[in-house]
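Comment thread on ticket #2218

A.B. wrote:
> Attaching the input chain for the structure job we discussed in standup.
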Amino acid sequence: MKPIETGKAYDQITHLWQRESFNRQNGIAAHEKALGFAQPEGSALDIGCGCTGRFLDLLVSRGYQYSGLDVSAKMIELARQRNPDVCFYHGDICEFNLTQQYDFITAWDSIWHIPLDMQKPVLNKIIAALNPDGVFIFTFGGTEEAGDHQNKAMGPEVYYSSLGLNGFLTLFMDAGCIIRHLEFDQHPELHTYLVVEKGT
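C.D. wrote:
> Ran it. Output below, let me know if you need it in another format.
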């Protein structure tokens, strides 16, 4: 399943993030932990930014210049309506050219949708786009082995992939990054987030 198809799937379910009952605290504590390892301000990129603006609000409150990227055209449309003065990009991170350096990058519940064979090149591209000492937080399926699958848990069929726990850790250590925090934050589910810092 290509990312553009995932974007079209998310176009159909934006209402899930617009409900009054949506938990705007989802992921906030993890981002606050990650920000504890980051520069006090700088440039930030939100990959798979969605439409809620909750990470935008947090990062701007910490002095970051924020940009958002999402493969869903509808998510970007809604994000721009909410924050018309913020820079948002509609695009696929597999193909999107990261032309500037960032001090903080987040990819919360997003890059697990890219093809398995794109996980390594995309993550290496993200690392390359970090400034020295820059911090990256992202979520993944904390499986033992690499793999992928599709399901319809949210309605339309959506694809997921993971390098597996050791696969992700090995990639970042080989790239000279420092592992700052790893947490199975919805245990016993395999939802996992990782905070890494780019070496100098």
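A.B. wrote:
> Thanks. Noting for the ticket: Strands lie at 42-47, 64-70, 87-90, 102-107, 130-141, 147-151, 158-162, 178-183, 191-197.
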